[in-house]
Amino acid sequence: MHESLRRAMLFAPGNNPGLLQHAGIYGADSLIFDLEDAVSIHEKDAARILVRNALATIRYPCEVGVRINHISTPWGFDDLAAILPARPDFIRLPKCEEAEEIKRIDDIVTKAERRYGFPEGSIRLMAAIESPRGLRNAFEIASASPRMMALAIGGEDFATSLKTTKTKDGAELFAARSMIVYAAREADISPIDSVFSDLQDEEGFIRETELARQLGFDGKSCVHPRQIELVHRVFTPSEKEIQSAQRILKAYREAMARKAGVVAVDGKMIDAPMIIRARRTLAHAVAAGLVPQEDLND
Question: How is residue 117 annotated by DSSP?
Fold first, then answer.
């Protein structure tokens, strides 16, 4: 079954009832209701209740997750206790540094699913890598549980942990970004890029999103709804790319029907990696509404 695309993941502060109510109208592929950095320590309890009620009462058009506070803080386990009965699609753990953290949350989620009668495995997990220690353990974290669906980089915190600042060209994060993509791909889950917090610098946001796509990220975290369309634009293939992918898959299907061992398109031999890339291109084209779902069906 085709995994949902996660091009744009929109953060919504858990203490903002208006944004929680309307977050689904902006076209993000995923929503993340934030109980961590966006919420002051004086509003943790209120935000937790707002997010729980939103999940329980509003039907969103995309997957919805919750970024809890880390389980080492006074709020992390309370976040889980309040949120899990509302059955979010996923839980995002910030500042993850050890696979054991994922395993502890997995155990809590499993018990909650059994307690509330949810299908086992229906609540997924996502971890954010925000330090060198987390990066060193990235693959172990990414593969710590079958619930793991994505591995993200928290750029601002990671740069701070390096005792530097996050710059517009992102040179200080290049190695970390690459290693997170490698770890996620080895574990067969989605790599998600960091937020870009300068809302006035649209060109800079597009450049960073283009870099993320080139490095192999599946999508980008967004802090404002107007960033969503820009992410979708970057991750949408061109007409030339779509037509090439369609020709490759058509030739492949015809070769399979003839039981032929050799596939060629435009004078070039077609191998397995090209077929995989063609399917990925069409998946993004389907998500953008440029081609019908049938183009992906074998």
Answer: T
